[in-house]
Amino acid sequence: MGIDSALILCAGYGKRLKPITDYSPKPLLNVRGKPMVCNILDKLIGAGIKKFFINTFHLAEKFDSQFPLSSDGKRHYKNAEIILVRERGEILDTGGALKNILSLIDRSKPILVHNGDIFFDADPKPFIAQSYKNFKTYPSCSATLCLRGGGNLSNVCVRGNNVVDMRFELKKPFDAAMQFCGFYAANPPLFNLLEKEPNKAFSIVETLLEAIRKNENQVFFFAENSGIWTDIGSPPEYIKINGGAAPDRNFRLAQLLSYGFFPEKTSEIDKGGSMREFFKFEDPKYGKLVACFYSPEKRENLLYAPIAKFLKGSEFPVPEILYDSKQDRSIVMRDAGETSLCEISEDKKESAYEKVVASIVRLHTQITEKYNLSPFELSPGFDDNLYIWEQKYFMEECVKGRFGINQPFPEGEFKHIRQTLTAKAPSLLHRDLQSQNIILGQGGEISFIDFQGMRLGNPYYDLASLLFDPYAEISAQMRGELLKKYAFEKREPLAEAEKSLNIAAVERLMQALGAYGFLSRKKGLAEYENYFRPALSSLIDCALKCGFPQISSIASSCLKLLGKK
Fold first, then answer.
1. CB 40 within 8 A of CB 66
2. Do residues 111 and 30 touch, judged by C-beta distance below 8 A?
């Protein structure tokens, strides 16, 4: 018959993994793509175990959801029966948990016991076979422990085939000290000892030591050094065992814990077309923070932290970086606030925009001068090739891709735009200076975010991104006043500034429209459909002011088709 049942210990709080375990019991955390307890179940089911007892206490209802009742009134996992045993009042510890199910099991044969927070992928069949052999051969055998050589906690002392001490409590001579794998077979003699235990909650180690005191030949061991064994009790261990798996929310929280933060009140931030992950959280020491996890596919993501530190040191308003790791591709920074420029009320809009313009004047002048004295890596600057890419992006992803218009490229007008934009001395550019990337704090202070694409280029590209932003349309009067402020502070003639702004706006709006076409069609982000109309209307207006009839005509054709597709 062999051994056909097992107890999986799942009642603990998982305190070392708080606050992750405030939301999920540790055995239900994903390890290599599925809950830890399911890794254990799969392993033991493959070895012939058919019935499982799972003791629960902390967030016990989560196990009810993981293993719902079937139509037969029982719980199942694959071809095995699951019996949830909810502990009441207190956690019964490893010994009390086994004692608590004695009335539910067949006490004439062994039962396996496996810790619910241990990942151990060695084939369990040899251990189970040896455990059953010990049970049949030695009637006094109370248990067979699965042990491992080495490890950080080698405190199970063995001599010959037997365990003679645990935690060095009995001070007996031994041949070797090994690590307990959190996996053992409990036999009827151990059940008898458990039944006599006066306490309700206690460690199984106490009972095993009592068995050894009575007879050194009562507890056997099996050495299993193959496979991977790890306790997922701490953030570094949890991160290590999940290396290579697609990270989930709990993995990200574990990373933050390993960096020295204690994330509370966590929430994910939707960043639209961004391929990065953002989490807002609160830390008892640092207050409100934002964590960013990015892929290595875009080089510019690696540049965010050094750019932020440079800008912060230049007294440019950006969130302070508290932690960054290129290896983990992660950044933790201060939370800039809740409200973006496109969300502010009308009575605060003028003041906020004036602050933004004053800041970008500094970026385009004094901070650019500072950068030029000691340059560091940025994304490649704006040149003919980058402008050609943006113009092609507009024609292929918006004009042809979104609206189905096969139109020859207006090469003469495109070339004129490129020549005009590249003729001006380059400044540091935010590169995506639209209203969603400018945040207002509670005191009205502004912060710039998402500047990882910063590079050198025509400063009016930034100003056009701000003043012709489809996410936050502003009146022509306000646009004119802000342009006057920008030109005055830079000591540039207003007429020249207006001409530069309109040409830069044509280029920037084409880039934005290309992005809307790409994101809405190829990334399934339908919300970007909302911005075609304002962007096309602005493009038509600016193109006419610049004397670009072909671009204006193309944009007008797209606008006429809007809503028909």
1. no
2. no
Taking the C-alpha atoms of residue 274 and residue 294, their distance in angstroms, rounded to an integer, is 9
Q: Is domain 342-561 in CATH 3.90.1200.10, yes or no? A: yes
Instruction: Enumerate the CATH 3.90.1200.10 domain ranges in the chain, comma separated.
Output: 342-561
**Contact partners, residue 19, CB within 8 Å, separation at least 6:** 253, 262, 263, 264, 266
Place of tokens 């830890």: 36
Per-residue confidence (pLDDT) for residue 564, from 0 to 100: 59
* Strands (E) located in 149-218: 154-159, 162-166, 176-186
Separation in Å, CA 19 to CA 35, 236, 254, 255, 307: 18, 15, 9, 12, 32
Mean pLDDT of 30-53: 95
Q: Are 78 and 41 in contact (CB under 8 A)?
A: yes
Flag whether the pTM goes above 0.70.
Answer: yes
Q: Which of 414, 385, 545 is nearest to 468 (CA)?
A: 545
335-360 per-position pLDDT tens digit: 999 899 999 988 899 999 999 999 99
Cβ atoms of 222 and 146 within 8 Å: the answer is yes
Where along the chain do the CATH 3.30.200.20 domains lie?
A: 259-334
pLDDT tens digits for 512-562?
A: 999 999 999 999 999 999 999 999 999 999 999 999 999 999 999 999 998
Which regions of the chain carry the CATH code 3.90.550.10? 5-231
Please say if the pLDDT value at position 272 is more than 60.
Answer: no
The DSSP line for 395-411 is IIIIIITTT-------H
The CATH code for residues 5-231 is: 3.90.550.10
Query: Contact, 117 vs 238, CB < 8 A?
Result: no
Q: Which 8-state DSSP code applies to residue 456?
A: E
Q: Are 493 and 374 in contact (CB under 8 A)?
A: no
pLDDT (average), residues 305-328: 97
- Tell me if the domain spanning 259-334 has CATH number 3.30.200.20: yes
- Residue 44's contacts (CB-CB under 8 Å, 6 or more residues apart) are 6, 52, 112, 114, 124
Handedness of CA 382, 384, 387, 388 (dihedral sign): negative
Closest CA to 333 of 271, 275, 273, 259: 259
Helix, coil or strand: residue 359: helix
**Residue holding tokens 């004295």?**
373
pLDDT of residue 164: 95
Output the pLDDT for position 243. Answer: 78
* pLDDT given at position 232: 86
Q: What is the 3-state secondary structure (H, E, C) of 1-32?
A: CCCCEEEEECCCCCHHHCCHHHCCCHHHCEEC
